[in-house]
Design a protein that fits this description.
Layout lengths: L1 E3 L2 E6 L7 H13 L6 H24 L3 H14 L9 H25 L10
Antiparallel strand pairs: 1-2
Length: 123
């Protein structure tokens, strides 16, 4: 992230890119939630997911990909660590797997199109 033209209160997200590696790393992190981990791990996952999904939503907004913008704009609300949503372990496991599958599918779509450093197009 860089400051824009010396203004200390504006951040330029154009240089922050959620590339294909981000999709795979976040999918792996989500799938690791299926294993019995310490509670701190789940808190870390919630925070990291909130930040990464927010950046992805913003990038899809800039690319005018409304469907993915809405999907990745909603996920930070679900994963945010401040007001925890109590879904129960089983339902959280389902959510983690569905999100991981979505991320892997988007990665495969992006890889199939041969594009680099650009968020995948809407499904």
């Amino acid at each position: 992230m860089q400051l824009v033209d010396g203004e200390s209160n504006k951040i330029n997200f154009n240089n922050v890119d959620c590339n294909e590696t981000s999709f795979l790393i976040l999918a792996a992190i989500m799938l690791l939630c299926l294993a019995p981990m310490p509670y701190g791990y789940y808190q870390l996952v919630r925070f990291v997911a909130m930040v990464v999904f927010s950046v992805m939503a913003f990038q899809y907004y800039e690319k005018k990909q409304e469907t993915l913008m809405v999907v990745f704009g909603t996920l930070p609300l679900l994963f945010q660590p401040f007001v925890k949503i109590a879904l129960g372990r089983t339902l959280w496991n389902v959510v983690d797997v569905v999100v991981a599958i979505l991320l892997i599918a988007l990665w495969l779509i992006d890889k199939g199109k041969g594009r680099k450093n650009e968020p995948p197009q809407a499904l």
